[in-house]
Amino acid sequence: MTRSDALGEFEHLVLLAILQLGPGTYGVPIRDEIEARAGRDVTLGAVYSTLRRLEAKGWIESWMSDPEPVPGGRSKKEVRLTSEGARTVREAHARIGRMAEGLSDVLRLP
Fold first, then answer.
1. What pTM was estimated for this model as a whole?
2. Which end of the chain is more exposed for a tag (fewer CB within 10 A), N or C?
3. Which residues does 76 contact at the CB level (< 8 Å), separation at least 6?
4. pLDDT of residue 109
5. Where are the compositionally biased (Basic and acidic residues) regions (predicted)?
6. What is the spatial distance between Cα 102 and Cα 66, in angstroms, rounded to a whole number?
7. Cβ neighbours of residue 68 under 8 Å, at least 6 residues apart?
């Protein structure tokens, strides 16, 4: 793994939010999911720039939705994980698990 394809913490949170929300989600629900589950304030700009970076790395793919069925309805840029993105999340979780082995007492984990 090179530095450019390393999974950063916020990228990890965005990928996990996409997994939680399912294919076809977009920026606002991703931000809301991270804020609700991680308790972290997130700007939409941070989410959208991260989505562009994740797509450039091949970990997500995007498409434009049909416009909302209301006058002046807008399309949304929807996303889903690629198989490479899912592999990246699995590997990151495995690495974190290995690093945390035996630290329950130190970290005060259940």
1. 0.88
2. C
3. 26, 64, 65
4. 65
5. 75-84
6. 49
7. 74, 75
Query: What pLDDT, on the 0 to 100 scale, is given for residue 88?
Result: 96
What are the pLDDT digits (tens) for 11-70?
A: 999 999 999 999 999 999 999 999 999 999 999 999 999 999 999 999 999 999 888 888
Radius of gyration (Cα) for the chain, nearest Å?
Answer: 16
Report pLDDT digits (tens) over 34-51: 999 999 999 999 999 999
Domain 3-107 has CATH 1.10.10.10: yes
Contact 101, 94 (CB under 8 A): no
Distance CA 76, CA 51 (A): 13
3-class DSSP state for residue 3?
helix
Q: What angle do CA 92, 50, 4 make, to 5 degrees?
A: 55
**Beta strand spans in 22-95 (E):** 60-64, 77-81
Phi, psi of 79 (to 5 degrees): -135, 160
